Amino acid sequence: MEIIIIFGIAIIIFASISFLDHRRMRSIALNRKTSTICTYARSFDYRNVDTKIMREVYNHIQAWVGKYEGIGFPVEASDSFNETYKMDPDDLSDIYFEITGKLGICTDDPTSNPYWNQVTTVKNLVLFLNRQPKIKAT
């Protein structure tokens, strides 16, 4: 009987945390109604940053976060993976490898990248990917 009570309490706590996090993200999304991918793109020096990388990061983050009120979450370059999204590092890693695979970005020797260990925001992820070498076609 005690196990059932403990299990029930754990479910209630988990549901409450999920509900509060959903409300927090919904509030952020609704406060950014005017934010678009164009606003996001203007956060970068698009002459020196690959726009394909910018778009892929935006799309992957938006897909991960989901929709609120039927509209995709308005991603901003300054969004923190930890503070804004509460994203697990494994999820960030999955997004990284999906993007590198799709765009032909080399994942060898990331420690030589000046943005190594600095990927805390969406912008830093874009800049990190932009500095990684492309896979050479054979």
Summed up, the helix count is 5
- What is the first-to-last residue Cα distance? 64 Å
Write the element-wise H/E pattern from the N-terminal end onward.
Answer: HHHEEHH
Helicity, in percent? 40-55%
Strand order of the largest sheet: 1-2
Could you tell me the mean pLDDT?
90
Can you tell me about this structure?
- The structure is a single chain.
- With 138 residues, the protein is mainly α.
- The chain has one domain.
- The chain contains 5 helices and 2 strands.
- A two-stranded antiparallel ribbon has the order 1-2.
- Strand 1 and strand 2 form a beta hairpin.
- The radius of gyration is 18 Å and the shape is globular.
- It starts with a helix and ends in a 7-residue tail after the last helix.
- The model has no long low-confidence stretch (mean pLDDT 90).
Topology:
Elements: H1 2-31, H2 37-41, H3 51-65, E1 67-68, E2 71-72, H4 89-103, H5 122-131
Antiparallel strand pairs: 1-2
Helix pairs in contact: 3-4, 3-5
